[in-house]
Amino acid sequence: MSQPFAKLPAWADYGLIPLVNLVVAFLVAGLVVLLVGENPIQAAGLMVKGAFGSGEGIGYTLYYATNFIFTGLCVAVAFHCGLFNIGGEGQAYLGGLGVSLACLAFGDFLPWWLTFPLAILGAALAGALWALIPAWLQARRGSHIVITTIMFNFIAASLMVYLLVGVLKPLASQAPETRVFGEGGQLPQLGWLLQMFGLQVRSAPLNVSFLLALASAFVVWVLIWRTRIGYEIRTMGFSPRAADYAGISQTRIIVITMMISGALAGMMALNPVMGAQHRMQLDFVSGAGFVGIAVALMGRSHPVGIVLAAILFGMLYQGGAEIAFDMPNISRDMIVIIQGLVILFAGALEHMFRPAIQRLFGRLSGSDLRATPIATGESH
Amino acid sequence: MDYYVTLVQLLDSTIRLSVPLLFACLAGLYSERAGIFDIGLEGKMLAGAFAAGTAAYLTGSAMVGLLAAVLVSVLLGLVHGFASITHRGNQIVSGVAINFIAAGTTVILGQAWFRQGGRTPSLPAGARFGALHLPGAEALRDVPVAGYLYSELISGHSILVYLAFLMVPFTWWVLQRTRFGLRLRAVGENPAAVDTAGISVTWLRYRAVICCGILCGLAGAYLAQAQGAGFVKDMTAGKGYIALAALIFAKWRPVPAMLACLLFGFLDALAIRMQGHPLPLIGEVPVQFMQALPYVLTVILLAGFIGKAIPPRAGGVPYVKER
């Protein structure tokens, strides 16, 4: 395996390889579409049209993308520390509790721009606390964070059902959801932003939390690459032993990283709960926490990549809903398949095409690059 | 006598509920003892259940359903092997991917083929694994205590239930008393030593992954063909993860694995039975609490408050032959 490989230029490493992985994932997804007797190319066309063909479509695409930016960042921050946080789903669910409590308490008499920071605080705090226990258990008791966070997803689901059915539901109501928040618990829509470009958004629930998601992506970039704690997180992820020698406390870093990760997941709840439904409904996360895994892997844990990957998945989500009208055999569950395939090809099989591409580059760029042999297989 | 009947019925449903856990747990045991973490038990079980439901419905044969389940599950296992053994990818990521692929594909195909909201049509008796009545079960029913125990608890399960419990001593024997088992354990602890002895690490690990696939397929077939009568969307409902937890709790050993699965099965059975029955002193326990209990318990167990679990040493680490 110590074949001399050319070092790839950055655009190939961060652009070409994810693209190749993505294309393969879509080709396999196309096979599934064939299997249910529909035309994959037609399906792809319908999907793009549904997602970007109208102002409303774009609005929805960006609305879904908002969710995925938050959950993608959640997974990515943990990845940088070498942790795999599958608990985004549960942390986001709990985040909804934080948002709802803030909105129920203050939404009736404070304006939205005063409730918003409180809701952000509530969401982040609830998500962070839900991630704290698995983090502490991993750091101090050695229990595997993947298993504990999965368990916490199930526990969160039970807890929230209990709260929504029993505690938070208004007495007169049958549906397991909170009451509609007051005026101050509702985020302004961002329709005007798209209208500036002459697009009609109609009912698309795109709202201010989209801007918060973009801001969070920037903050995460600053945090990971421009602060001391970010440096420690990356050191820990790169080599726990090196971190140990450098005097970085494992417990401290694991707990801090997971709390940041959980807080980001929790903030995802702002978008559907405060931004779109203006109340908390049962199962409002509906898999966004898991989509975050695919988004983070595809975006290679970099905020820019995550925003792009999130928009792609937003497109799949919105387009998938549109396809279902024309092709009844395809439902939104198609996204789950694509998500799985992206995780497989961009995550577990990320090195499958790398040697071939490196060889190709080596051949194209001549011998000067070949002089530096790069050992594969040690990157993981 | 009333309490006795209740207890026996509770234990009876404990057995029924712990069988899929036991198959999946033993499946994970083969894989993880060989150094391949497998979080994809859930997905393999789910895909297996779907294949079982579909094939058994189309052919009307229980056996064909079972074989289809095993086949599909092994194929997914091979995908996991391809990613994590051949391409040395991250095993957890690969397992998660398989869970999503299974969850999505079963619903899409089920809806497209049968149009019943993601479920497969319900199976006739011939396409299922019905209850086996052990000799003398009817005659002994009226014998107090022991007879009732025999006819209710021991007899009257499907063949897959007996197979699951037979797999426990069999797995122990394979791991502890055969050459394959010794090598399997070695490759999970120190693959370099196995390699030095001239045995292929890759092939051994692939075989472990195939064993895992077969057992997950059996778990799926049990869900669709014995416990239920057909596939229902998302019918594994986290059982794969519970099985994984049971495996860790059992410290990767077959007999404790069975006990752990029985414990989780018992909790599940208790939760079902306690619905709507208020407890003395505490009052009615919310259903959601009982549903969450296995997961809470798992977290507590994993935190090492009840003994420390040490995984196989080479678990999760792709093997790189020395250059």
UniProtKB/TrEMBL annotation, chain A:
The keyword Nucleotide-binding does not apply. One of its GO terms (molecular function) is transmembrane transporter activity. Keywords: Cell membrane, Membrane, Transmembrane, Transmembrane helix. InterPro entries: ABC_transp_permease (IPR001851). It is found in: Cell membrane. It is a multi-pass membrane protein. One of its GO terms (cellular component) is plasma membrane. Pfam families: BPD_transp_2. The chain crosses the membrane at residues 12-37, 57-79, 113-133, 145-165, 204-224, 245-270, 282-299, 306-328, 334-353. This is Sugar ABC transporter permease. It comes from Phyllobacterium phragmitis.
From TrEMBL, chain B:
It is a multi-pass membrane protein. The chain crosses the membrane at residues 66-85, 92-114, 154-175, 255-272. Keywords: Cell membrane, Membrane, Transmembrane, Transmembrane helix. One of its GO terms (molecular function) is transmembrane transporter activity. InterPro entries: ABC_transp_permease. One of its GO terms (cellular component) is plasma membrane. It is found in: Cell membrane. This is Sugar ABC transporter permease.
